[in-house]
Design goal:
This protein is α/β, with parallel strands linked by helices. Helix content is 48%, strand content 13%. The chain contains 19 helices and twelve strands.
Length: 420
Amino acid sequence: MNPKPLSYVDFEILNNPTLLMGGNIAIYGAGERGTRISGLLNNTKLNVVSLTDIDPNKWGRRINHTVVLAPADMRDALLAANGKRYVISCIENTDECYEFLSALFYGEDIGFISYWGIDMCLYMHRERLFHNALAASLQFERDAALDFIIYTRGEVLNRVESVLKRTNEIWIYQPGKVGSTSLSRMLNASGTPYLKIHSLLSSEYRFLGELYPIWNQTAGTLQNGRIKLISLVRNPLARDYSAFWEVFVCGTQRRRYIPFLSANLQEMYDSFVDIIVNQDKKYEDAHIAVWREEFNWFDEEFKECFDLDIYQQPFDQEKGYTIIHNEYVDLFLMKLEKLDSVLPALNSFIGGNIHLNPQKAYSASSKIYSMAYRAFHQKVKLKKTYVDHYFSGNKKVDHFYTKEEQEKFLDEWKDNIELV
């Protein structure tokens, strides 16, 4: 008999945080995430019953005033408590944790909360849940700001160093969230040096003020001499959805979108796609990164940096790729959906002596928000005007994708598209 699954309650607590009040909480995972969440919960009105980890070397240790227990002891402690009971996953693979805890609590009425769910809940409802709402707000903002600064500076400086040393012969230069991780994993496995980058155009929200001159000088260095570039496009509905989770629900990005944050994810998604479709620039004045439509990205980046108009170049829709040469670059441009079939041509473009094998990317299915990602995918509604923007006479989409491919994309999302 299969274990009775735990009740997945991320969205419930996000919309109604009072569900947690008066309840009992166990935390699974005593690593960095578990330590952070247990520390936050110690300053709330919520009751943490136990903290556990599968590593026996951690059993008996005290973290944030809570002793780490073995999983079986954590189960006993939580079941002995009266009232509603919840367990929070604080490990990397949420799906794996859900299966394990469903077996551990077989037959019991337990609510399952992911790390993403509790983090979003505490952030969105900090004034209601924390003893000192002001202190909690300041702490969240400090953490988010620090994470963002460390992430951004690290990314930029690593790229600067690579460009100046000219040690990378292959550049993956593409819009965000088009599946470049699969490609970079293949290059890693083959030992091929490369650098992955989303933009050569500087902007304050991306590079921070003090890095302006450094990056502008570096980008100019990159443009001197021939470069091999690899770029990708992707089904825009899937790409936008993936981008939404990147910019709204990840800690390093979330603080940049405070004006749009809401417990209602549908409203947040509507705001996000509206920015993409309408390219509303007013938010740039507030240093909010305006996420760019992937097809406009090619105009903005390639035209500006390499005097290359992608849409004036032929693209083989059936093969799924094209190779373009001009006085600055050699470009291999492909559709993510054709990645496996274009590998021989890509191998030849790179050098012909590299054995590329498909590598599964670190996809949303293995991330801390995996369950929320799938659950929201089932219920999110796409406005017809948004869908028509891509699939009703969009010449740039038509440049890459056949009508049959576009119909397939629409069929994959048919249950999500509003009829009017």
